[in-house]
Task: structure prediction
Amino acid sequence: MSIGTPASPRVHTGTVATEKFVPLGDGAISWLRQDGDVKAGTCVYTLAEAGGRHPIDFGISETLIVLEGRIRLEMEGGPTLELGPGESASFARGARGAWSLVEDTRLFFVST
Result:
């Protein structure tokens, strides 16, 4: 079975090895899955490339877990979260706010 390709129509495999990442906005991603209404993958962001505050508007539901580093999420009408390794958050469709890096960060997400 090759990492990064569907093992079968019902199983997807991926990697967190950065040499397999492709550019995506202010960071890079290794896609685990991109089909139908489901997207999942591992993203990396560096302060050098993604420093500053970035608006976010969840047009879909999304859940993330921080693998390395720290990220700050300031939610409109809600809390400001600072997530580090092993910490996660889940956002409902329509949530809005902004994110910024505290440190270079690697995270895994699933959106539906």
